[in-house]
Amino acid sequence: SRDPCWHRLSRGRYLVFRRMTRGRPGTWLARFYDGARYLYPQGGIGDFSALPEGEQFDAAKLAAEEWFQQCDMGVSPKSTTVGAACSAYVEEKRQESESAADAIKARFAKLVDKDPLGKVELSKLRPMHLAGWKKRVLALGGARGSFNRDATSLRAALNLARRRLEVASDLAWRNELKPFENADGRRTLYLKRDE
Questions:
Q1: Which is nearest to 113 in space by CA: 61, 153, 68, 77?
Q2: Does 1 have pLDDT greater than 60?
Q3: What are phi and psi of 189, to 5 degrees?
Q4: In 3D, which of 118, 100, 98 has the Cα closest to residue 109?
Q5: pTM summary value
Q6: d(Cα 63, Cα 83) in Å, to the nearest integer?
Q7: Average pLDDT of the chain, as a whole number
Q8: d(C-alpha 155, C-alpha 176), whole Å
């Protein structure tokens, strides 16, 4: 149906499964009423076809509720990726220093743009994505001190996206991007603040 019958989860929060053509997996959609208009997550919230049929609704409902929480916090419904967040951070740094922005851009080009992490949507970013990235970066032969510098840049880009309400929380990267202690032979001081 082109006009699906939405399942009401609670006031202003809805969920529906939609299949446009036979033989293709459908997708779960959510919508949120903010008091003036309906908001929709770009690209839906997933198809969950890898799960048994009896578990798909529960998984979709959980994903929708996470998205509703982001809407409650004022996060933009427009989807953006980790790579886009890194590009935005480079442009932010460019206002301070061209050379620093160029150095960070080169770092992201090597470690984010060419990595699967760069394509992950911020709204779907999880600690496992950062853990995988960390493992891949260290496997490239980089020292722990180099990883700390790389992680600092990525953490700063993600923190900027959070301040701009493109993502609701820093839970995905808070622990996975912590610097290694004594990575350069000296004690690392980790400040709990936005970079």
A1: 153
A2: no
A3: -100, 120
A4: 118
A5: 0.63
A6: 22
A7: 84
A8: 10
